[in-house]
Amino acid sequence: MTPEDLNVSCCFCGQGLLYKDAAEVSVCLTSNIEEVQGLYAHTSCFDKALHESVPRLLDNLTNAE
Known about the structure:
This protein is mainly beta. 11% of the residues lie in helices and 35% in strands. It has one domain. The protein has 1 helix and 4 strands, in the order ββββα. The strands form 2 sheets. It has a two-stranded antiparallel ribbon with strand order 1-2. The chain has a two-stranded antiparallel sheet with strand order 3-4. The longest helix is centred in the C-terminal third of the chain and has 7 residues, at 43-49. The protein is globular, with a radius of gyration of 13 Å.
């Protein structure tokens, strides 16, 4: 099994998706940047969660859902 075949959960809707199809969100506190948490999301869920004024790379990605 390769990492691309792993199943992860969307941090917004809770549904599963393949790692290779997920958007990865890294969260770190500025006070302790040595600790980072990786979260995964459907690109469509991530897009819905962001305010419309926030620029996004997602406009250039193909949604594989």
